[in-house]
């Protein structure tokens, strides 16, 4: 595949960026997982299993969960949804999770966020047994990630890493900017990007990393972005990243996803990047939709197979 | 105290940086702790207690432990050292830690690193009960730190934060560079510097943070440092940070400490910063020795009082 160093050799010529096809890449990964899962079952194991808990009626959350379940079934994972009314108490939710924690037929547990009402999401995330926490939200898994130990990496962060790897984007000693410091996305991405590639997790990418966020002054955001070989943005602010902020040939990974209404009154999904203009300058770019999103679901399936394999080895 | 914004108002005039007196600041903090501990005891509590485990005969480690014990005794902490031969097995060490974990007369446990031989330091650090882990090395405490939750912060990282606070160095929306990505120093400092000040830990400083390390090209290190309002360096590479790399008025916190032999054949301790030259450009600077070092010991005492208070509330 074409890398951004290739682009640089083209000088100032305006060529369109390589479009990172997250949908195709996700299909590739799911096909690989399907084969691996079939082999795993052929060795005498039961199919990896995933349980998704959803509380309340948020339509977007239900769509996300349906997509995850469908992807799981496609690759051969035994996946079901546990649906609860928004009236469910926190104690009842915790009891439901504990029951899945001790169920030897369950490998992966996922609690769809956000939770309704005044539930303590941190407490709920910490209730999921760390070895079944395929979302990587348990405090122990966060600690392991930050110490470069093997763990479950939150699927969106892992999707970004996997895109960089599969598209052979060089990160070693390169400048990366992460825009957004959320604990599920920006933080783990920045952690893996700057970490030592020789450490146990093998996810370290040895880049020089700048974390920008809502309090980074606009001119400083531009300063850091213009010097970046890789920009990863996860803010939910449409058109935050403009063509004038991009170093020619840079790789742009857009994790943002916002529903907007266009001039014709139609709603559509957009990312954080002014895609039309930035794609004329960048070396490679993810579209929204069809970039990081489908990859996130694929990486959740990857985590579920990991959970099954680790639990099988333990038992 | 004079801030670097004051310096900027001086224009290009060359004035010497404010020297951050870590020794005096540490004394100030220890005096405050002494008063707090006396009040705590006056309320009917026993004195906070700290147990330092040291294995083997490394002279530097013994010096560090002696300094910690002395500081603890000075502030009214009941502190003792448990010394073991280098022949101690990992299982015996773990048994010793477990015995302290369950001892209601022990609030803080510290295992001096490095451990000799082939001991698994990660396993040992994870054996210390998280609520007694005054070094903040347990995976749960690392996870909490990275999620901006109240926790024990590694003392050196906390020392840096405390210096910035006490010297009223503005961090909000400022550019900070952290040089070095170690898990006990650079990583937690970068985490607190970039995090949201509104989160539970109240340690977030809302700076834009760039993490540089051994694979950051020299010219890029210079690029980021020259744009930084705050530089925190923790590499152990003498004179890595030179005057040409400093923005006039910047704050320089030097965590590095290296023993070198000078031209006269005398050994002395130096930091990462070319102190003599950089102090002509910087707004504020920590010397080595006498900067971060004494503050680290003071913050360990702070953590020990915290441990005692939290455990007292629980019992």
Distinctive features:
globular, 315 residues, Rossmann fold, homodimer, disordered N terminus, 6-stranded parallel sheet, 11 strands, alpha/beta
Detailed description of the structure:
Chains A, B: It is an enzyme of class 3 (hydrolase). Chains A, B: Its EC number is 3.5.4.9. Chains A, B: Homodimer. The structure is a homodimer of 315-residue chains. With 315 residues, chain A is of the alpha/beta class. Chain A has two domains: 44-129, Leucine Dehydrogenase, chain A, domain 1 (Rossmann fold, 3-Layer(aba) Sandwich), CATH 3.40.50.10860; 153-293, Rossmann fold, CATH 3.40.50. Helix content of chain A is 40%, strand content 15%. Chain A is built from eleven helices and eleven strands. In chain A, the strands form three sheets. In chain A, strands 1-11-8-7-5-6 form a six-stranded parallel β-sheet, sandwiched between helices. In chain A, α8 links the parallel β5 and β6 (208-212). In chain A, α3 (59-75) crosses α11 and α7 packs across α8 (186-194). Chain A is globular, with a radius of gyration of 20 Å. Chain A binds chain B through residues 122, 139-144, 146-149, 172-173, 175, 181, 183, 187, 190-191, 194-196, 206, 208-213, 215-217, 220, 223-224, 227, and chain B through 122, 139-144, 146-149, 172-173, 175, 181, 183, 187, 190-191, 194-196, 206, 208-213, 215-217, 220, 223-224, 227. β6 (208-212) of chain A pairs antiparallel with β6 (208-212) of chain B.
């Amino acid at each position: 595949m074409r890398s951004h160093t290739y682009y640089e050799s083209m000088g100032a010529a305006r060529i369109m960026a390589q479009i990172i096809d997250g949908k195709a890449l996700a299909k590739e990964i799911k096909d690989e997982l399907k084969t691996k899962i079939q082999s795993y079952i052929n060795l005498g194991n039961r199919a990896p299993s995933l349980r998704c808990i959803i509380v309340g009626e948020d339509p977007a959350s239900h769509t996300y969960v349906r997509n995850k379940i469908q992807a799981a079934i496609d690759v051969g994972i035994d996946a079901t949804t546990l649906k609860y009314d928004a009236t469910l108490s926190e104690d009842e939710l915790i009891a439901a999770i504990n029951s899945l924690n001790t169920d030897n037929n369950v490998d992966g547990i996922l609690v769809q966020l956000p939770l309704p009402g005044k539930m303590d999401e941190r407490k709920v995330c910490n209730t999921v047994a760390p070895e079944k926490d395929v979302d990587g939200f348990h405090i122990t898994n966060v600690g392991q990630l930050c110490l470069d130990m093997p763990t479950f990496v939150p699927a969106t962060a892992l999707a970004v890493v996997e895109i960089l790897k599969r598209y052979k984007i060089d990160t070693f000693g390169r400048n990366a900017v992460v825009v957004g410091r959320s604990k599920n996305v920006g933080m783990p991405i920045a952690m893996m990007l700057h970490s030592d590639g020789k450490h146990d997790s093998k996810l370290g990418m040895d880049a020089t990393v700048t974390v920008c966020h809502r309090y980074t002054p606009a001119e400083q955001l531009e300063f850091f972005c213009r010097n970046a070989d890789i920009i990863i943005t996860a803010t939910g602010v449409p058109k935050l990243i403009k063509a004038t902020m991009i170093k020619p040939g840079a790789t742009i990974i857009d994790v943002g996803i916002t529903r907007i209404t266009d001039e014709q009154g139609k709603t559509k999904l957009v990312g954080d990047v002014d895609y039309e203009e930035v794609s004329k300058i960048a070396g490679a770019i993810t579209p929204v939709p069809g970039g990081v999103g489908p990859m996130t679901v694929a990486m959740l399936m990857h985590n579920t197979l990991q959970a099954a394999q680790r639990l099988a080895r333990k038992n």
